[in-house]
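Ticket #4471: structure output looks truncated?

Reporter: J.K.
Steps to reproduce: submitted the chain below (493 residues) through the standard prediction queue, then opened the result file.
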Amino acid sequence: MKNNTKIKNAYTFDDVLLVPAHSKVLPSQVDISTNITSNIKIKIPIISAAMDTVTENKMAISIAREGGLGIIHKNMSIEKQVKEITKVKRAESGIILDPVTISPEKTLKDAISIMKNHEISGLPILDQNEKILGILTDRDIRFESNLDQLVSEVMTENLITASEGTTLNEAKSILQKNRIEKLLIIDKKKKLKGMVTVRDVLMKEKFPDASLDPLGRLLCGAAIGVSNDLEDRAFELVSAGVDILVLDSAHGHSQGVLNGVENIKKKFPDIPLIAGNIATSDGMKALVSKGADAIKVGIGAGASCTTRIVSGIGVPQFSAILDCVKISNELNIPIISDGGIRFSGDMAKALGAGAHSVMLGNLLAGLDESPGEILLHDGRQHKVFRGMGSLGPMKDGTADRYFQEGVEGIKLVPEGVEGLVPYRGSLSSVIFQLIGGLKSSMGYTGSKNLRLFRNNAEFIKISSASYAEGHPHDLRIVEDAPNYQPKDNYREL
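Returned output as attached by the reporter:
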């Protein structure tokens, strides 16, 4: 038996508290930007989990606008996942370099179908030589009843255009001056080179902290797994413009995952790769040695995860972070804390312990932007939340994450459950409360940025009595707080 003479103590977030210190820093003054990888920086340290009840295109778009990052789950076909990525990358742009177009010989019915499929409101019209002829927008077809008409009969031909090299600010001025919603960018031969829309300009102003790629598009990540389609899925996602790949597994310190990381980095060396999950410094060192650019830390800590119960395996999340921090600091590889976060204070503890960002599942599952319908149960609104190791997702495609690919449904061994979480409204309100709590914690410790927060953080272990003391006690809560949900709300629903 390995180390049978000594059993280590290990702790999770409820076991510890941050110690307040002298501070000249107000919460409003702190900088919470962080690195996901050495080359990708975001304004808030929050990533949405690659779970099928958490992150599809709506969540990925919304969280990127708030300054975080969304990871599209892989529990779908490659084609569907590519479509989800495309929707995020086309949600807004600085200058759209590859706008969807149509030929003048197509019908209005064709045009409407294309616009609906791509969720856009206008189509540039190109001839066979890719020269711009006109544009077709919602306004052109709004009152048309004959959808068999050709696009050429209805399109707007008198165009306001701008030359190649026009900046976004210059484009904004042209849009405002001419009272138009779409500005086509053309070269000297009148070939289409891009498009700027009023909507994109307004989004830039509304969400100044948005996570953007070099072309001004929203950042987006996507999950891949150690399965038969690993390389094919990765290739298609990269071709679709994904910014980050996440090799997602329940046991990142396994040879199959290590081989997968190595292969993906060889084939796509310029695409940042997050790998996990692990819970030890040895696991982190192994993944980094194969080329991983960031590491997901957490085994068995998720709200819907039963890995620790089913397999008896895991490390309490706080201690897992502390163990991996040593390698993170030594090799300058960011850590993502995945699992166990119920309150903003837990997020503060994870970041103070050394994580560069946190991945959230449960807290984001009951939102308007998460997949699924709102359900009424016992007079209150809920949404479905299921662990990716529960039977449903495993049957649908995540069995490889738990090394059970190809196993018949009746023989699957789940490591998660399905349940209901309270409906929480919009993502923006939840993000506001989480970030508010984090900034408050940084103010209490005198930390003006997350690097100093990690350096300044001092922790103490607390007793069960202290834990109880920290929660509301000796009263009946009569009005819900936006940033506090009692455990009772999560018991048998």
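Triage note (M.O.): checked the attachment and the full token line is present. The CA atoms of residues 23 and 446 lie 4 Å apart.
Status: closed, working as intended.
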